């Protein structure tokens, strides 16, 4: 089943997932032992699965591209200093700035990236794709956090 979604990700996101700057995200940890790169990939898979299961008519290309870039902030947020101490509140804006500089984004993708932390950030998701991303991101982040805690307990 994942092969179907992997093909969709490759079709619409090949320029993103093969970009050396994007690949640097493998060096940054997101939750537990999961890299930002792996987190974004997992969120993209979940976004496609949710849209499919709910039989939502979404713009698949925008869904993939927005999900792949939702955490494109390009720093290690675990390093505590003035620029990262409010990461949860600020990284969507930073991801949006970086993604806009490196990729040509449409209005759906921009809304997805800038609102994916709703309700922590008060920017409102305006498209089905944005709502799906919010949900998928929270599911994947929760799984990654729980897995980290389970690994630490062993």
Give the key terms:
154 residues; globular
Give an overview in words:
The chain is mostly helical and 154 residues long. 64% of the residues lie in helices and 3% in strands. It is built from 7 helices and 2 strands; from the N terminus they run ααββααααα. A hairpin with a 2-residue loop joins β1 (29-31) and β2 (34-35). The mean pLDDT is 85.
Could you give a quick summary of the protein structure above?
The protein is mostly helical and 154 residues long. It has helices at residues 2-17, 20-23, 36-53, 60-69, 87-102, 107-115, 128-153, and strands at residues 29-31, 34-35.
Report the count of strand segments: 2
The major pleated sheet works out as: 2 strands, antiparallel
Numbering strands along the chain, what is their spatial order in the largest sheet?
1-2
Mean of the pLDDT scores?
85
Would you list the SSEs in sequence order as H and E? HHEEHHHHH
Uncertain residue segments:
none
Helix-residue proportion: 55-70%
Beta fraction of the residues?
under 5%
Total helices: the number is 7
List strands and helices in order, with pairings:
Layout: H1 2-17, H2 20-23, E1 29-31, E2 34-35, H3 36-53, H4 60-69, H5 87-102, H6 107-115, H7 128-153
Antiparallel strand pairs: 1-2
Helix pairs in contact: 1-3, 1-4, 3-4, 3-7, 4-6, 4-7, 5-6, 6-7
């Amino acid at each position: 089943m994942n092969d179907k979604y992997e093909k969709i990700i490759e079709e619409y996101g090949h320029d993103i997932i093969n970009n050396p700057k994007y690949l640097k995200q493998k060096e940054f940890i997101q939750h537990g032992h999961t890299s930002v790169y792996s987190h974004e990939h997992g969120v993209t898979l979940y976004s496609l699965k949710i849209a499919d299961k709910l039989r939502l008519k979404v713009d698949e290309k925008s869904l993939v591209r927005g999900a792949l870039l939702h955490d494109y902030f390009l720093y290690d947020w675990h390093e505590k200093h003035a620029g990262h101490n409010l990461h949860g509140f600020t990284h969507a804006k930073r991801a949006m700035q970086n993604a806009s500089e490196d990729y040509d984004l449409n209005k759906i993708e921009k809304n997805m990236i800038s609102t994916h932390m709703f309700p922590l950030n008060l920017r409102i998701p305006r498209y089905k794709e944005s709502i799906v991303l919010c949900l998928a991101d929270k599911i994947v982040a929760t799984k990654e956090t729980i897995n980290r805690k389970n690994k630490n307990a062993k």
